[in-house]
Amino acid sequence: MWDSIRKQTGQILAYGVSMEYIDSNPMRKTIRPKHKEYEVKRKFYTKDELNTLLDAFRDFGNTKQNAFFRLLAYTGMRKSEVLALQWKDIDMFNKELHVNKTVAIDEHKNIIIQTPKTKASRRTISLDKGTLAILNDWKIQQRTEYLKLGYNTSSEEQHVFTTLKNTLYIPNTVNDWLRYILKKYNLPRITPHGFRHTHASLLLEAGESVKVVQQRLGHENSKVILDIYAHITNNAPKKTGQDFADMMAHQ
């Protein structure tokens, strides 16, 4: 009975988060009785599964969420890094973005911006044309939509992803967005961090070197890549940024 009520209430609130009526799902803070987990979350997707999920985000029609998960999928960034991005960090001309900060929650439950914990996490990531186009679409839409709400987002200091009050997102909000789409389109479960695993696995499958993948993901040493991403999926072409986009192309 409890599980049924909790599930239905959670679904209603998750819809509210996905439509941005509310910033976060309060049901996530409730504690359920321990029981066997029936469905195991996937650590990574195959190329086809990733394309299917990204198609679902496009079909859903939320330009902001589509841009957010496109970045996760095509850069291997941490969700906290993406949420901290400002437009000045994205160089459209040179097709790259600079990772130099993250979003975190402090001891008082406040959302803060902090510098990355390691030197390796501060990095520059190459971007493909498709991702840049999606980001540019969101940038234009953000200016129009937020101006109607009374916010001028034209400054390069503006954060790329913010609530309708133009404040930073609680990191777990991203999980709610993803959970809603996975359920709506009946897709295999995966976490936002799973996009990072997927990006690394598919790059290695494409023939990219361990060292390059390590640097792109911001790991301090290659051991992490070798340990965590040893389960690459098969095939093999070559390279980064635009090459990842080419590999992900439907045709």
Automatic annotation (TrEMBL):
This is Tyr recombinase domain-containing protein. InterPro entries: DNA_brk_join_enz (IPR011010), Integrase-like_cat_sf (IPR013762), Integrase_catalytic (IPR002104), Tyrosine_recombinase_XerCD (IPR050090). GO terms for molecular function: DNA binding. The keyword Membrane does not apply. It comes from the Bacteria. One of its GO terms (biological process) is DNA recombination. The keyword Aminoacyl-tRNA synthetase does not apply. Residues 40-242 form the Tyr recombinase domain. Keywords: DNA recombination.
